[in-house]
User: Fold these one by one.
Assistant:
Number 1:
Amino acid sequence: MAHAAQVGLQDATSPIMEELIIFHDHALMIIFLICFLVLYALFLTLTTKLTNTSISDAQEMETVWTILPAIILVLIALPSLRILYMTDEVNDPSFTIKSIGHQWYWTYEYTDYGGLIFNSYMLPPLFLEPGDLRLLDVDNRVVLPVEAPVRMMITSQDVLHSWAVPTLGLKTDAIPGRLNQTTFTATRPGVYYGQCSEICGANHSFMPIVLELIPLKIFEMGPVFTL
Amino acid sequence: GIGPIHPLQPEERQIGSVKLLGFLDVENTPCARHSILYGSLGSAVAGFGHFLFTSRIRRSCDVGVGGFILVTLGCWFHCRYNYAKQRIQERIAREEIKKKILYEGTHLDPERKHNGSSSN
């Protein structure tokens, strides 16, 4: 989960998120260099004694400041497209879970496991125990195995919602009447948090998502059924 | 930064981090510190060298800034390429170790197949 006043990305829990962090570092370095150049140009503009305002016919400069941004955009676009197509790769998921957004909770269906269905409500502050996270913890977590490709089918029963888990690099809109699909493979066990990411009414901020990722051996023993 | 495990707590990580222009975290971004340092060195060498030859201050500053950008970019791509290669090698090594642990002693053990074919 994010710590207080965190600005940067959370640590990665899936290979796609690792790639996204690498791309983010790459884009940020290019942005830093562009900002540095612009700040220097601004400094020169503010400290020059030259005041000629009718400069014209600077073909070389115009060529440079057209070609250079095009090259920069290509340098950014190529890795971006690579990751975009990587997220759409079909990787033969081990099983499928359906996530349905409601106002203001999530319903999860484990149809591969005998039709287990449960709701996941945020824990109200009065029901929090010491160590629980305010506005993040839920009554029933989504329990999943580590290192197994999982397919999430996401939809909504009423208005638009969005199922997001930042550490996995996931954000998929829950649209009524439409079934969106996303797949992921978690690389390490733990409890990971996300929040609804599409404005959906008064309690939009109070319908979090909690994934509990456990080793496959323990998952197969069936703890997810003990509700 | 990248990687699931960091030895420092988030608060400690924040105290140690230096953010250039307020957003580029050079401590926690792989290759950033290395690139910026070499870029600064390149900028100083290029700018000062140009000044020694031409005695033009303004143009030397421009050469210094240009040198910083080019050297930083060059070091950055070189370092990131090697970093990506290293990550791929680590992943291959991890997979091979996992396979070895799983298949050692079984009929699927690649070493047993190799030894069997060489003895024949």
Note: The CA atoms of residues 151 and 183 of chain A lie 4 Å apart.
Number 2:
Amino acid sequence: MRFNEKEMVSLSRQPSEMAAELGMRGPKKGDVVKKRLVKLVVNFLFYFRTDEEEPIGALLLEQCRVEREDTQVFSIVFLDEAERKYLFECNSEEQCGEWVDSIIKASYEFMRKNLIFYRTEIHRLTGKDPLEQYGISDETRFQVNNGLQLMPRDTSSL
Amino acid sequence: MSCSFFSNSHSAHKSTFSSSGVGMKLHEKLLTHYLSCTSPVDKEGYLCKKKERNATYQRRWFVLKANLLFYQERPADRHLLGVIVLEGCAVRRSESGVQFAFSLVFEGPGLKTYRFAAGDGQTQESWVKALLSASHCYLSLLVRDLGRQYEEAKQQRGLGESCHGSFIKQTTTNFFFPVQGPTAEVREGRSFSAGTVLHAPSIPNRVVPKKSPKLWPRRNAHVTPLNGPAPLYGEWPLVGFDPLEDFKKLHDHYGQEVKKAREEWLRSHRAEEAHIDGDLIDLG
């Protein structure tokens, strides 16, 4: 499958708050821990050999589960397959927590859910749709009934 | 083609390969899995895509989901031809001779421009709009902005900490979306269609005013008083404008508030003075 590689490499160079040297272990049996520069940019996790400018690879952080495995270790499981589990060794408990938090919040779907929540709530509280001013209220991606059931709707104000 | 053409293009091509000798690995299965999973697609349809090398257009089926634009030959195909990650690109309606054309222009040295043509004006417009709001950066700014509006709306209602959305609650107070790279903010704004510019609001941290011992309530221009009537939504601290262009408007807007506050203070101050002018002690 083709993809815009140069543009992705350029993206991997964007400044990021979450960029650190972590021990990274791949999902396959026999994969060992390797020191990698791991960098979170938008909803991708890029990983580099520590002295290189171009990333080795990029992992899309959607439909994955991020969990703390140990005080300083977190994992990402993709495709709901336990076999596709990546492990990341951090340098402190705090750093580990930050990474787990950041990766969860970086997911596009997570952000979309929040947006829909805010949109619904702002409309409930003010009677106005906050997306109207941006001219995007009709965009499919921001629809409230976007197949996502956030929480029971409060209909008391209706 | 002359030799100089080849040598120029060769030297201009910067290697993007890491030391493994192959290009960057994009774990495709993760993308295809995401595409086929239950969350809905944001837009799909036929478009003509211009081949990079020559000037021909090929009809492809495009599927937009989140910040990813996939394409394949036909909708039923299992095999995906490719994907375009939509970060760091501007969406332009093309002025070229091709009808209903638009393009994705990736900003940076040596980066691509993808060119498309739709079947009609409505399809073109619909795709341009969808692509304009597709990037992660855009969504990030939007969520941040709406999060702020939500907090303000809650305070207006005097609800304080809402009991709604407990799973969200933990995150809203600590939410921070790092702005990723130069494509956010103003640059993205420029590529938007007229009338809708999203900017990251740069208002300072607001402090909710406490009851002041002064005669007139202390008012911060960015905060509406808790016990005053809420202004109409349209009068709220201006969102959806470009501060670089409309600073004068902003200045005038808050200037009016200051003027009013001053007048109020003068009025009540005079009233007090009048009161004091009378004898402090009634000597009968």
Note: The longest helix of chain B spans residues 243-277.
